[in-house]
């Protein structure tokens, strides 16, 4: 990359042919060649240097998607980055690339719930067994390993409950037993942590979230290490998963300001988390309590924290929690996050698959907050006026 991350994001493209500071948006299904000979020449180049930008057909991408692949590969400091039409498409591709009938996979217990449904229910039909480890006790990985284990799948921090895990220890186990590793890094993005550099084989980011940043496009990226590149490429060729050039263009437009937005999300989230941590009946699930296990494990691997947090609320029943959420006026109630705006959801974790290591008492509820780019004083005032509904 040469220059710093921040500078690189502003200088990712300069096509002085057209005096354009942005790459052209190239839409095409058919690529035309002057002759059969011309086509065969390109096919030869493509075989020799796969994903090097030699396109025979639109399903492989166009120069626009190729630009985004290059930018993300630089940010991730990875060997290559595959693009998918959604973040979940990248999750699917990571599993589809590695797992075959008879194999086993070990996943973090608090993974994104669609990832859980896919691995726990759907993979079973293909004779692939999913096992889950306790993010607070990594020995549970070792006890579940067998000769059939092909992949350890991490999400950090855990979905909704925000446990930070000792990533180095997980990688050590994987290395010792020669198992591939994947991590869902949507929360941290490569701005705060670079999983491929740490030693992961695959790093998933939902581009729908902070990369695009404007809640107007969906996409996913799967960055890979050199040793796994060919496996994933062959799998992707078989899936037909392709990000449209229009969506790639929007994600590139968003990513120019990834650092600026994430710095501000972090600042706002810290202000809100500090305010909430002083309230009784609330435990903030965000790395701000110095000395805590989560803080130490976050600090060990991350250079910053994003805008998504959980709050564990003690309440007599869930009606009071819903009342609190419903009375927030600056927080929208809806899925996704990573856009400019604040969001709040009461997460019914007990109903989202069979979490096996869920430390949640009967009178405890989890609300997920995405802290947006609004004035944090307004956000705190909004939360403060709604807290009175929690009983
Ligand atoms: C949103 C999300 C995904 C899926 O991304 P989509 O773009 O919505 O398909 C995967 N993992 C995590 C952690 C997410 O938050």
Describe what you observe in this structure.
The chain is α/β, with parallel strands linked by helices and 391 residues long. It is 38% helix and 15% strand. It contains 15 helices and eleven strands. It has helices spanning 5-10, 36-48, 63-76, 87-98, 113-122, 139-144, 167-176, 189-192, 195-198, 229-239, 245-255, 258-277, 293-301, 318-326, 376-386; strands spanning 80-84, 104-108, 129-133, 149-155, 180-184, 202-206, 220-224, 282-285, 308-314, 343-347, 364-370. A seven-stranded mixed sheet has the order 1-7-6-5-4-2-3, with helices on both faces. Helix 5 links the parallel strand 2 and strand 3. Helix 3 (63-76) packs parallel to helix 11 and helix 4 (87-98) packs across helix 10. It is globular, with a radius of gyration of 22 Å. Bound molecules: pyridoxal-5'-phosphate (PLP). The site of pyridoxal-5'-phosphate has 14 residues, from helix 4.
């Amino acid at each position: 990359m040469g220059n710093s991350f921040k500078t690189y994001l502003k200088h990712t493209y300069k096509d002085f042919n057209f005096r354009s500071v942005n790459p052209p948006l190239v839409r095409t299904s058919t690529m035309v060649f002057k002759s059969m000979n011309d086509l065969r020449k390109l096919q030869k180049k493509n075989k020799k240097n796969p994903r090097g930008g030699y396109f025979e057909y639109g399903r492989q991408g166009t120069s626009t998607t190729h630009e985004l692949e290059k930018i993300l590969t630089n940010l991730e400091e990875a060997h290559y980055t595959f693009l998918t039409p959604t973040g979940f498409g990248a999750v699917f591709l990571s599993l589809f690339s590695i797992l075959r009938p008879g194999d086993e996979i070990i996943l973090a217990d608090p993974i994104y719930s669609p990832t859980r449904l896919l691995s726990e229910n759907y993979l079973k039909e293909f004779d692939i067994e999913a096992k889950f480890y306790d993010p607070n006790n990594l020995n549970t990985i070792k006890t579940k390993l067998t000769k059939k284990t092909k992949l350890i799948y991490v999400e950090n921090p855990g979905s909704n409950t925000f446990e930070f895990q000792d990533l180095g220890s997980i990688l050590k186990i994987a290395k010792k037993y020669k198992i591939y590793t994947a991590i869902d890094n949507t929360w941290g993005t490569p701005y705060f942590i670079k999983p491929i550099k740490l030693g992961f084989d695959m790093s998933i980011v939902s581009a729908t979230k902070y990369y695009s940043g404007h809640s107007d496009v969906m996409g996913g990226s799967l960055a890979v290490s050199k040793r796994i590149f060919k496996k994933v490429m062959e799998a992707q060729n078989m899936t037909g998963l392709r990000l449209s050039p229009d969506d790639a263009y929007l994600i590139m437009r968003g990513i120019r300001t990834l650092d600026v937005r994430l710095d501000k999300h972090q600042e706002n989230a810290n202000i809100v988390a500090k305010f909430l941590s002083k309230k009784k009946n609330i435990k903030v699930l965000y790395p701000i309590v110095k000395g805590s296990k989560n803080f130490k494990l976050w600090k060990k691997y991350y250079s910053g924290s994003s805008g998504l947090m959980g709050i564990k609320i003690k309440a007599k029943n869930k009606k009071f929690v819903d009342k609190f959420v419903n009375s927030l006026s600056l927080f929208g109630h809806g899925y996704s996050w990573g856009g400019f705006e604040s969001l709040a959801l009461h997460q019914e974790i007990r109903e989202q698959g069979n979490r096996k290591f869920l430390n949640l008492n009967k009178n405890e509820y989890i609300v997920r907050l995405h802290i947006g780019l609004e004035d944090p004083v307004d956000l705190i005032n909004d939360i403060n006026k709604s807290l009175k509904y929690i009983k």
